Amino acid sequence: MLRIRIPASTANLGSGFDSIGISLNLYNYIEIGAAPGCEISSADGSEIPTGEDNLIFLSAKKVYEKAGIPFHGLKIIEENNVPFARGLGSSSACIVGGVFGANEILGRPFTKDELLDIAAEIEGHPDNVSPALLGGFTANALDGKNVRYVKANVSENLVFAAFVPPFELKTADARAVMPKEVSVKDSVYNLSRSALLSATFLSGKYENLKTACGDKLHQPYRLPLIPGGEEIIEKSYKNGALAAYISGAGSTMMAIFDCEKEKAEEIAKEILSSGEFEGWKYFILNADNSGAVAL
Ligand code: HSE
Q1: Which CATH class is domain 158-285?
Q2: Cα 73 to averaged position of ligand 1 atoms, centre (Å)
Q3: pTM score
C-alpha cells in the first residue's frame, strides 16, 4: 500500500473566482493499493462513503481508464482531517488523492500537468485541485480540457486563520445564489483585482492583498448564507489582517496575517469569543508549498 499526503486548499481569495487557490498545511492521508473489488475504510472511524461512488475510488479509476489499463479494484484507507463541505478543498483532496495515488501505482504514466487536467475535469474547475496537487499559490485558466497555470511558493511569514463554522455549505448551493449575468463594471472590478492578486503573490508585495481580494462576483451573494461571515471579515481587518474572504464556496471564512502564529491565534480566539460564534473552530495554518506527496 502507498501512503499519500494531500493538503487542504483555500480557493477564490475573493477576486479569483474559480481560478486562484493556495495549498494549506492541513492534510488528509490515504493508503491506497491495487486489490480486487472496492475495499474502503476510515483509519479514524469517521463516516465515509465506502462504495464505488467514493470520490477517491472514482478518481483513481479514471486514471486507469485514461491510461487504457484494465481496472480490477482498489483498497483505500482514509484519514480525513480537512473538514467536509466547509470550503477547504475536501473534495479536491479526495480527487487529487485518487488521481495521484493511481498514477503512482501504475508507475506514473501521466505527468503532473496531465494529472491536473484529469483532476480539473472531475472537479469542473481547477482552483482547489491545482494547489492540492502542486502546492503553493496557483493561478489557473481552463483552456478547453487543459489547465494552464503558474505556481508560486508562498512565504512562511503569511499565517492563514481559517474560521470554520459548525454548518456545512454545499458548493452547489453556494453557486445557486450567484447571478447568471454580471455587469461590465463588476467584471472589471474583479478582473483588475485578480490580476493584482496574482502579481501580489508572484512579487511578494503583500500590502496589495486587501484590494486584490475584493470581489463583486460571488461574495456579496454568498455572505448571507454564512451568518457571522461579514463580522469576521470586519474584525479581521480591524486586527491587522492583510486579507479576509470566504474560503472557496464557504462556509469557512479565511483571514491572512503577516504576524507570529501565536498572535494570529490570539486574534482568532478573540474574534470567536462572542456568543454568536458558538460551535465555530479555527485552524492557524501556513501555506504548503509541496502539494500531494507519496510518503
Ligand atoms: N471556486 C469554487 C466556488 C470553489 O467558489 O464555487 C468551490 O469548489
Answers
A1: alpha beta
A2: 30
A3: 0.96
